[in-house]
Design a protein that fits this description.
alpha+beta, about 325 residues, two-stranded antiparallel sheet, single chain, 11 helices
């Protein structure tokens, strides 16, 4: 069913790079199109049905000890990648998910279970540039194909007199891994030349080397106030991260081939890194909060709700004393 709210969002946009026009879809799929299932609301509905079956079969929530059920609802992610985050398709997905969550919790109510709910997401997302520009985001654009790893890696290699790309793996943004065959002075020269090429491109906001990130201070304090290098440093692992880390300017979509996906995430900008967190149980007073918290704060907060002791300093997150009904232990 297309609600009036979703109908208002129905506007078709042509997509560059091989993608099909989108914006007014109904998330219908042809019979037998199993690969499209995950990009429909039915994916989440089926997951919630399985979760309900598990709860009933195992008798969860009926014993003296609390039970924890983690449910991954991934259709929103796939719908966002496939259709973007701001059109009729996403509106239909979120409307359906809201209804399905309501039905799921109504079922728990009928079973007489006492439960608390924590809802969040692992990331945000960037909508398609065409729709962003239509809404006034003038700098929204698709990434220049010249920034694709093979393209820039080969172009810089040619300047250095090499026949093969300098880049072994990586995407148009984020971690970039140099060819492991490069060693010593050749590796240092390649790293310097690649960094310079990235910095010279008008769509690149910053480029950080592994050495720069390794030397940067570990993140601390209010995440909303972190500078750019600290935001990238928060995801840095000396053993696994790339030789370079590319940060595109805001609203640049890092997708060259749009035949499969038209939107993605993974940048350090707030539209990707900020997500809502909702904690709720029956009788809890509504209390919107605007202070900066982190997803790692969910675990110690739920522990306090359940009366489970968490040794000070044993986890990264903090108990959210501002949540109604939560008595956090002294820190």
């Amino acid at each position: 069913e297309i609600t009036p709210l979703c109908a208002e969002k129905a506007q078709v946009f042509p997509i560059a790079g091989g993608g099909k026009p989108l914006g007014n879809g109904t998330l219908a799929r042809a019979a037998g199109a199993n690969s499209a299932f995950r990009s429909t609301p039915q994916f989440d509905a089926a997951t919630l049905a399985l979760a309900a079956g598990l709860i009933q079969e195992q008798g969860l929530g009926k014993g003296a000890a609390p039970d924890l059920v983690a449910i991954g609802l991934s259709a929103t992610d796939y719908v966002g990648h496939t259709y973007g985050t701001g059109g009729q398709e996403m509106c239909l997905q979120l409307t359906s998910l809201d209804r399905d969550l309501g039905d799921f919790m109504a079922l728990l109510d009928r079973w007489g279970l006492d439960y608390a709910v924590a809802l969040t997401a692992d990331h945000g997302g960037l909508d398609i540039p065409e729709r962003l520009r239509a809404r006034g985001v003038a700098d929204a654009a698709w990434i220049d194909p010249a920034l694709a790893p093979k393209a820039i890696g080969t172009a810089v290699a040619t300047k250095l007199g090499r026949s093969s790309s300098l880049i072994a793996s990586g995407g148009p943004s984020g971690d970039i891994y140099l060819d492991p065959a490069l060693t010593g002075a050749d590796r240092a020269r390649a790293l310097s030349a690649l960094a310079a090429a990235y910095r010279a491109h008008p769509q690149v906001a910053a480029i950080f080397t592994k050495a720069e990130l390794g030397a940067a201070a570990a993140p601390s304090g209010d995440p909303a106030q972190w500078p750019l290098i600290t935001r990238v440093r928060a995801s840095f692992d000396a053993a696994r991260s790339g030789d370079l880390y590319v940060v595109l300017k805001p609203h640049i979509m890092p997708i060259v081939d749009t035949s499969a996906y038209v939107a993605t995430h993974g940048s350090p900008w707030d539209y990707d890194r900020r997500v809502p967190i909702l904690l709720w149980r029956k009788g809890m007073a509504p209390a919107p909060r605007e202070e900066a918290i982190e997803t790692i704060d969910i675990m110690p907060t739920l522990s306090a709700l359940l009366g489970l002791a968490v040794a000070p300093g044993s986890v990264d997150g903090k108990c959210l004393a501002s949540v109604d009904g939560i008595a956090c232990p002294p820190r």
